[in-house]
Amino acid sequence: MKITQFIFTTTFTVLILSCTNTSESDLIDQVDPQIVITYTEHIKPIFDSNCVACHSNPAINGAGVPLTTVSQVQSSIENTNLIDRINKQSGEGGFMPLGGSRMPQASIDLIIQWQSEGFAE
To answer: Where are the domains of the chain?
Structure first.
């Protein structure tokens, strides 16, 4: 009985100690820097998960613009402060998504990379 309890306790301890949450980016698929970031494959899922609940077409809940197409998202990045608003911390004025949690930094970085690479579709 003691040997079984020792094995269980040891196994449990090893499993618990091997789990960490040292980095949020570990929890998000990282994109190979050699891959071209595209709206359809990389960016649209981010906006669908975080923005389209209000920024639908038509926009609801006080959202100013829809963000459901590549042209709408690109226009909002180029002509409004969309990047600035998603970069804010929760509780700051203008923070998006309103009433939601801050997007993972890896997602924000991916949007910025997509912009800097010329908005590939």
So the answer is: 23-116
